[in-house]
């Protein structure tokens, strides 16, 4: 893999009209619906319009009722379930925090590092929505369902306004100021991309560091500051995410899935899966089949 010069990457921000919101819709569940524990790199927003549900988020059980917003941060194990047959209707949004953050990489123009601010929250945030937040959530849904050439841009702007309004409302605006440099952000973004492209193969921290033309020690420092995870923890979580996708979308055996996500040994895969998700992969796959 060729080394790269990060001095050439300082303007490597995401255009505002690129897809930041991965999915946004209104869903309705009932009759003791449940979705098993899972984990992902996106940030998830729920706004409950009617009814209620329970979520296991990390080690907590969180009750959500109509009018509540739940924001679930990246790399957080969580599940969703109803403990009655009463319907639960909610807005559900997934967005890529790293792409969103990269829009604001020019700190001479913006003094906001959204990823750093959001990652300061441990695993989730729960609040009562007000009229402004509800309006922005429905505007996002409207734009996602619109094919207009400005829809992606408006989605990003509405999402950004929602998050900034949330931070203002919850009095965490003091976190707007950040000491991280554009180069730091770029190194971490490019490390994400390297993992995305190479997760099915053996990855050493030195491989990523050599690709970025920095030391392994410096990479570890930057990566942990940006994600609150070690590089290895992130790689393992990424691979487990991919294995869950494969369980849900293919008939591949667990051995084949383990190999395809770069974990090789099925025993190592099973131990790692259980450590992260809380149950072994065979049980999880059976839950998906029954679901």
The percent range for helix content is 40-55%
Tell me the series of helices and strands, N- to C-terminal.
EEEEEEEEHHEHHHHHHHHH
* Structural classification: alpha+beta
Overall radius of gyration: 20 Å
**How are strands sequenced across the largest beta sheet?**
1-8-3-6-9
Number of domains: 2
- The share of residues in extended strands comes to 15-25%
CATH class of the largest domain: Mainly Beta
Which secondary structure elements does this structure contain, and how are they paired or packed?
Layout: E1 21-29, E2 34-38, E3 43-50, E4 52-57, E5 60-65, E6 68-72, E7 78-81, E8 88-95, H1 97-103, H2 114-119, E9 124-128, H3 131-144, H4 151-169, H5 182-198, H6 205-212, H7 216-227, H8 231-249, H9 254-260, H10 266-277, H11 281-290
Helix pairs in contact: 3-4, 5-6, 5-7, 6-7
Give an overview in words.
This protein is α+β, with helices and mostly antiparallel strands and 291 residues long. It has two domains: 21-176, Jelly Rolls (Sandwich), CATH 2.60.120.810; 234-290, Orthogonal Bundle (Arc Repressor Mutant, subunit A), CATH 1.10.10.60. It has eleven helices and nine strands. The strands form two sheets. A five-stranded antiparallel sheet has the order 1-8-3-6-9, with helices on one face. Strands 2-7-4-5 form a four-stranded antiparallel sheet. Helix 5 packs across helix 6. It is globular. The termini are far apart.
